[in-house]
Amino acid sequence: MKGKIIRVAGPLVIAKGLTNVKMYEMVRVGNLELFGEIIGLDKDTAAIQVYEETQGIGPGEPVYPLGEPLSVELGPGIIGQIYDGIQRPLTQLAIKTGDFLSRGLSLPALDREKKWDFEARVKKGEYVEGGDILGVVPETSALEHRILLPPNLKGKILDIKSGSFTVEETIGILEDEKGNRVELKLMHKWPVRYQRPVKEKRPPVIPLITGQRVLDTFFPLVKGGTACVPGPFGSGKTIIQHQLAKWADTEVVVYIGCGERGNEMTEVLIEFPELKDPRTGKPLMERTVLIANTSNMPVAAREASVFTGITIAEYFRDMGYHVSLMADSTSRWAEAMREISGRLGEMPGEEGYPAYLASRIASFYERAGLVYCLGRDKRIGSISIIGAVSPPGGDLSDPVVQATLRVTKVFWGLDARLAFARHFPAVDWLISYSLYVEPVSEYWRENISEDLYELRQISMAILQREAELQDIVRLVGMEALSPHDRLILEVARSIREDFLHQNALHEVDTYTSPKKQYLMLRNIINFYRKASKALDSGVDLEAILKLPEREKISQMKYIPEKDIHKLEELIYLIDRKLEELREGIKQYA
Amino acid sequence: MPKEYTSISRISGPLVFVENVENVKYGELVEVKLSSGEIRQGQVLEAYEGAALIQMFTSTQDLSLQGMRVKFLGHVLEINLSPAILGRTFDGLGRPRDGGPSIIPEKKRDINGSPINPYSRAYPSEFIQTGISAIDGMNTLVRGQKLPIFSGAGLPHATLAAQIARQARLLNEEEKFAVVFGALGITFEEANFFIEEFRKTGALERSVLFINLADDPVIERIATPRFVLSCAEYLAFDLDMHVLVIISDMTNYAEALREISAARKEIPGRRGYPGYLYTDLATLYERAGRIKGRKGSITLIPILTMPEDDRTHPIPDLTGYITEGQIFLSRELHRKGIYPPIDVLQSLSRLMRGGIGEGRTRKDHGDLSNQLYAGYSRGVEARELAVVLGESALTEEDILFLRFAQEFEEKFIKQGEYENRSIFETLDLGWKLLRMLPKSSLKRIRPEYLEEFWGRE
Ligand SMILES: Nc1ncnc2c1ncn2[C@@H]1O[C@H](COP(=O)(O)OP(=O)(O)OP(=O)(O)O)[C@@H](O)[C@H]1O
Ligand SMILES: [Mg+2]
User: Fold this and answer.
1) Distance between B144 CA and the closest CA of chain A, angstroms
2) What top-level class would CATH report for the domain A452-588?
3) For B45, phi and psi rounded to 5 degrees?
4) How many CB atoms neighbour CB B87 within 10 A?
5) What's the average model confidence in pLDDT over B308-320?
6) What is the complex's ipTM, to 2 decimals?
7) pTM of the prediction?
8) Is B150 on the interface with A (CB under 8 A)?
């Protein structure tokens, strides 16, 4: 069964003599026993992608098949962890082997010693099916870990007990349909390249609230939706991903640092335990799982990291939670595929990427969605995926961007010029879109306000008009514009600066509730409407623009959530001032 | 004793193919002995059963299919390390270039290093004062950061890098940096400029230099930055020193990589650079940083010249995707006679916010730099508009901003090559310039700070 290496080329190893291995089966490679995965079979040779640096490995060394595909361990203890691309716990690795990563180490992803308090929710004699909740473990103060019957099982509970268990101890016995006795445990394993089954996919319609104004109000995402965030370097992809990881209203967050900077993971590790979820008041780290396969870590494990992350996300979705998954950056993931494919000598497609690039990307985003989970209780769960894309030179014709846009429903296009102008988030309002605006507007109508959708549409129209007017100004100067057009320019500026611009680093501005977003936009558009009227009645534009109350509009973003009644008052104040200007005109006449 | 082989079957560019060999390991160091007795080094790029593809570190000139002896050394390319390395100059492959003895190793390290466990990193947040306003005030450098200089042919990046090396220090601390300098394919003059700089300022004893000049073998450059960074890791994490690494010019490195890729007939990526250029650069740049519980640090300033001043060229582009910002040099400012010609609008320090503010520099630093940036950006825009439509098309306020942009370039960005401004001088200078603008237009500054600093002369 043991095979023999016949070729080593970077992360790719070719071996022969591995009879009976399957595609995507795990192997250990060479005398150092590095982790690898079978990615190609050709007569008597097998192509293996190795998850660790292959330096020092050579032909003649052994390859040991492990008999199972790359899998993740699922059970209590995942939350708050930082794993590498194949779910090795980086914290434990650091303790065991020091500050630099060494090779050939296998450490269990879940702590084997730790005892968890398990409270059974099914009874002896009950019939259960895959996905049913056997019981719960309070994993963190923010999250109840629901222990599910693994998807492929079904039968009668012969025994189950509450109490304190490690992840490997038996919590109960199931008699399956064939009459076999199956031991139930707090953990189970799942192969990462296989989607976990669900009962039924549903069209996603509930907005995913991120607290980011340009996203929530202009280009909303939904729970179970998918978004693509492309942009050149320094345009703010990572900050958007971090903001979402912090403020998105999902119960679990899986953050994949895929081929990006080490310090960005450190930042999360330092910041998240300190930050509190605005809804639960619990530390954000207590709902977060980190996967870190940074740019200097082996590329094959980078390829795997995305699957490791999504499988963990599916596991929490199956419990009936809303999960959001951020992948920063999917371009590095695609490049990992390209590198392996190139070494395999596969026929390249566009830009050297493998021909299956688009289908791989599609099958990843397909794992998002709002679903009825397995199990008898019709739980609802969801995974939303937000993928950053880093195209060369910011060029959107890049194959990874294009393949991603074909399968995602929200496009937040980051623009270099906006980033230079320090307009953050640098989401370009002229090219970005959300295909969820219609369903979300239903939700807005019922939960926020009748007219939010209308306000958004007007704002978009004003911004479009601004772009046209700016072209004119560039050619012939400001003089050519009518007072009404100049008002539009002013209002557009206000929408951009007072609403869309949002400083992630400001303690208040970093998060805006939907209600406050609505009030802010309403005040801006109300100003526009009343000012137009005033112009129509002959009020001088300068007089309108000089109103000191406009200052209050630009300060709206810094008003804390607890004081938002001040925004309600602002509308009356502005109305009154503009009315006064109109009165002034009348008296004159 | 490793076996010697004579069975070279193919030589192409920097690549050598050897057959009938045994037990070859991927990445292992190879010595090829010429008939003249000269020994050249290479490494195994692909290991087959009974054969090996070798990438030479030096030229393949004079190599032939006959009469060569190839030896596989059983280990990867290593660097010899001991404290005696300080003050020494080596060539691009780590051999003494200063006539001194070889380093007697206390430690030997694989030049490729190992990735830092992301969990073990400490977040860089200690302000480094470079004495240069455009950096300290607007694009603050912190200890452990990787901040490249994006330059162009003929721009004064060397002068700037030398000034940084000379002046860099922590606030309230007299601790000095060790400097590790890597020359990659630069001219003798430029390399000599650095060496003389270090000598003049007495920094040479605290420096280690690895020099591969323009006329040295191109492919040696693949190894040089790895020697540089391995040396830096040793100084920082074994000897607890704060190390400033300057590597110039990364463009030459990327070109060497391209050459090897082409010789291997790999599918070329953009502009012929290999698809793995990003990953390859990342394995270098990510070696900078800080580690929890360790005293030392590696701050990395790679210099690269952008072909045709194009920032979307793969080398600056991929670098920008890896590093924590960039210092961008502008030909336009250089032409105007402004030194350092730092284009503040295109530059960025992503780690700035952790390194500034109350207790680090001064509480108004963040707002002030945002405001200077906004004001300058508006002024530059007004200037562009004025070029097309004339100043008469500008509003009164825009004209003020235009004047401000002018002064900002002349007074704030521009400074002497030997002028070392304290951060407080830089900040006060910023305030002085802001006073040219209407106070009400300074929206990026918190009202409290505006009150406190506006009236202060
Ligand atoms: N919402 C924001 N608020 C304030 N500053 C921001 C915001 N977004 C981005 N920035 C600024 O832009 C810088 C770059 O952002 P970020 O690191 O997210 O870029 P990126 O697109 O991920 O770049 P890369 O592709 O190189 O990783 C940040 O360091 C910060 O200074
Ligand atoms: Mg990023």
Assistant:
1) 10
2) mainly alpha
3) -95, -30
4) 16
5) 93
6) 0.92
7) 0.95
8) no
